[in-house]
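User: Reviewer 2 asked us to show a designed sequence for the structure in our supplementary figure. I'm pasting the structure tokens here. Could you produce the per-position amino acids so we can include them in the response letter?
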């Protein structure tokens, strides 16, 4: 059975760049790697509804934090069987965003701490009720909110797309960064590793640490 590794962080943190670098490093070691990203805007109707809501096309749906969280969670529920199949057929499954994004953004919108009622409700929904695979490792790519916002704005110009309601809310992004820090510090759901998204990350050294950790734990990659 493969290992499920998730990259988390703010919009503009550099998650896609890190995912590509990690995939290349794992490939270079001869490992079978499957990748994915959430929300799956082009693959799942719940993700399509999320996109419509975030761009103001579904009335007041975005006013409901729990309603939006359920849509995000249903996207992952629909993908769960595929993730399990990838884990059976690959050494590593690497995902850009997962349940912790839902937890961090929901807690930030409600101005609750990571040990508050929303995060526990979300954990119960996604992992207990929907039975999502639990990550073996969650990577928090930490960057200051203003740095992430600048990167997201540049990406918007390069890709000729509009940022959504969450991406353009600076206060929300700052609170979300704090929520991510709390989730990582608490080891929410599974082990976390915090990475400096403003530094030149040594991806090979990171992968080497994974091998050491999983070998010590008796797991195979």
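Assistant: Here is a per-position design you can include in the supplement:
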């Amino acid at each position: 059975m493969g290992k499920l590794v998730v990259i988390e962080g703010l919009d503009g943190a550099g998650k896609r760049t890190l995912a590509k670098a990690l995939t290349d490093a794992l490939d270079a070691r001869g490992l079978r790697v499957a990748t994915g990203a959430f929300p799956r805007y082009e693959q799942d109707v719940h993700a399509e509804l999320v996109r419509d809501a975030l761009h103001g096309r579904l009335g007041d749906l975005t006013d409901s934090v729990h309603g939006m969280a359920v849509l995000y969670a249903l996207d992952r529920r629909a993908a769960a069987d595929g993730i399990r199949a990838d884990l059976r057929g690959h050494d590593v499954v690497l995902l850009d965003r997962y349940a912790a994004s839902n937890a961090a953004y929901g807690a930030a919108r409600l101005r609750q701490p990571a040990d508050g009622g929303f995060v526990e409700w979300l954990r119960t929904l996604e992992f207990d009720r929907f039975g999502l695979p639990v990550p073996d490792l969650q990577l928090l790519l930490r960057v200051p909110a203003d740095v992430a916002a600048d990167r997201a704005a540049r990406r918007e110009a390069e890709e000729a797309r509009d940022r959504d309601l969450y991406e353009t809310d600076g206060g929300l992004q700052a609170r979300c960064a704090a929520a991510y820090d709390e989730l990582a510090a608490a080891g929410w759901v599974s082990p976390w590793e915090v990475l400096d998204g403003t530094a030149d990350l040594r991806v090979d050294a990171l992968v080497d640490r994974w091998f050491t950790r999983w070998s010590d734990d008796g797991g195979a990659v």
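For the response letter, you might also mention the following. The radius of gyration is 17 Å. Residues 155 and 161 are 8 Å apart (CA to CA).
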